[in-house]
Amino acid sequence: MPDRPYVILSCAVSLDGRLDDASPERLLLSNDADFDRVDALRASSDAILVGAGTVRADNPRLLVRSAQRRSARLARGESASPLRVVLSVSGELDPSAAVFRAQPSDSGSAEPVETTVVSGAFGDILDDLAKRGVRRLMVEGGASVLTHLLAADLADELDIATAPFVVGDPAAPRAFGDATYPQSPRRRMILADSRSLGDVVFARYLVARDRGTDADLLRLAIELSRSCPPAAGAFSVGALVADAAGQVISTGYSREPLRGLGDPDRNHAEEVALAKLGADSRLAAATIYTSLEPCSPRASRPLSCTDHILAARIPRVVLALREPAVLAVCDGADRLRAAGVEVVELPELAAPVRAVNDHLLG
After folding, report:
1. Nearest alpha-carbon partner for 148 in 126, 181, 173
2. Phi, psi of 291 (to 5 degrees)
3. Does residue 283 lie in a domain region?
């Protein structure tokens, strides 16, 4: 059976964690900049899931708004917008709801977008979507769906926009309700991105599970690369360092600002992750996971990422893709192996790395 989709829980909340107020009118939490971020996330997803309650209350279309993003999806052989998935126990939905309508195109015609209604256990639903080719699933609510997926440990990422006000109404729905959530000392999520979008604060968290396999941790590094600020002439790379027990102890991504490293446009993922740790004794038994082969040579700074890894005496490196000879001829993996470092390559995870770097690799 194919791997289950990568599940992204996406929501906007007030400062006290409310998705809405208790009035009949929909509470506006986001702004134009955040709506555009959500639109980009939709365009990068294979399917968007909501509960039937959200369809009845908000009547969402769940479509990609940007014509440029729709065109890019069509050029990749995809539909203009992702598959729309409605979770409904009863199946009683208004057939005229916006979620069942086709997408208007710029030419005035309609672009068909598939919608499916599902029910059953969340794990079974994810398995079924995987069989249908869904690799990235965006979940836009409502509160019950968000709560159950997180409590069942089926969410891989939380994307949360926080509006600058308090609702204060106990009857208003909370994004995450009372439930038994996975708990352990390691279940702190990874803050992969945090930035201001006008008066809204956006935060992106990745779920790092206990005893993750090499593939699990490398997938997290690849997801970190999606946080890289875009750059026309540079790769987007994500990296993380895990200790001997498999616990993530540091993360980094290309062009991530970090005090003390200088111009962030020159920051590399492995360099950032290691700089956050300094002279940490755990590095002697650590593994660094990187979406792309560590650079070597490097023109922008005296030390390459391969140099930094060797200086930190990290004994093990796991990567998804050898660096294509687009910007330089890289020999990082060979240099590391020659120095006695164990290098593990997982080429089965190379496809999403290439997709993130489509601006260079086409």
Report:
1. 181
2. -65, -30
3. yes
Q: Fill in the DSSP letter of residue 120.
A: S
Kindly report the length of the chain: 362
Q: For residues 150, 152, 155 and 160, what is the CA-based torsion angle, rounded to 10 degrees?
A: 0
Give the SS3 label for residue 105. coil
Which contacts of 10-13 are long-range, i.e. CB under 8 A and separated by 24 or more positions? 10/38, 10/41, 10/138, 10/139, 10/140, 10/159, 10/160, 11/140, 11/141, 11/146, 11/159, 11/160, 11/161, 11/175, 12/160, 12/161, 12/162, 12/163, 12/200, 13/160, 13/161, 13/162, 13/163, 13/175
Q: What is the pLDDT of residues 271-291, one digit of tens each?
A: 999 999 999 999 999 999 999
319 and 275 in a common domain: yes
pLDDT of residue 1: 47
Q: Find all residues with CB under 8 Å of 297, minimum gap 6, and list them.
A: 304, 328, 330
The two beta strands, 83-87 and 115-118, are parallel
Q: How confident is the model at residue 12 (pLDDT cuts 50, 70, 90)?
A: very high
Six token digits for residue 154 = 């089926």
Q: Let me know whether 197 and 250 are in one domain.
A: no
Average pLDDT, the chain: 92
Q: What is the pTM of this model?
A: 0.87
CA distance 349 to 346: 6
Beta-carbon count within 10 A of 141 CB: 24
Whether 1 is covered by a domain: the verdict is no
* pLDDT per position as a tens digit, 227-240: 998 888 899 999 99
Q: How many domains does the chain have?
A: 2
Q: Which alpha helices (H) appear in the chain, and where do they start and end?
A: 32-43, 52-58, 67-75, 122-131, 143-151, 214-225, 269-277, 305-312, 332-338, 350-356, 358-361
- Find out whether 79 and 73 touch, Cβ atoms under 8 Å: yes
Average pLDDT over residues 54-65: 94
Is the Cβ–Cβ distance between 46 and 137 less than 8 Å? yes
